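@channel sequence for tomorrow's demo:
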Amino acid sequence: MSSTLRRVLGLRSACERADLQDTARAIASDHSSLKQLPVSKSPVLLRISYRLIHHSRYLITFRLLVLLIVRISRLYSNSLDLSVGDIGRLVRDIEDAVGIADCYPRSLITGYLSLRCGKSCEIIIGSMAPTRKVHAWCATEGLVPYEALPEHFMYQPLIRWELTH
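structure tokens (generated this afternoon):
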């Protein structure tokens, strides 16, 4: 992993592991599978949070954002009762309302919603060798609740944060 990527993620070289496995067995829903379902109005605070996370990548490391998501979710833990599929639909609705479909905020919002529902999850960042492409996703109960395009399987996990409620 390059030193630039390590710095953006907020990691030291000692954190790097090449043998991580992806814990997501499947994707619960993607853009094409939800295309037939109507888009619901998502909460304003979640839409604002998505935008803030999207733009924060230039100011705050990913690791710090993960820690903030965990802390904030603990203030409201177990206050939502959503299935993994429901979390996926909500994330799709947020992205539709905001007009941005990006793995960076999607993984963090998915992690936040999973924790709020009392579900443990893992946020994973992987790279596609030999390219410089990087992708982030969140696995909850062994499923990725929502991916706009089902592509996480093409990435080798580099970092995995296990989040518990």
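heads up for whoever presents: Residues 3-11+22-163 form one domain.
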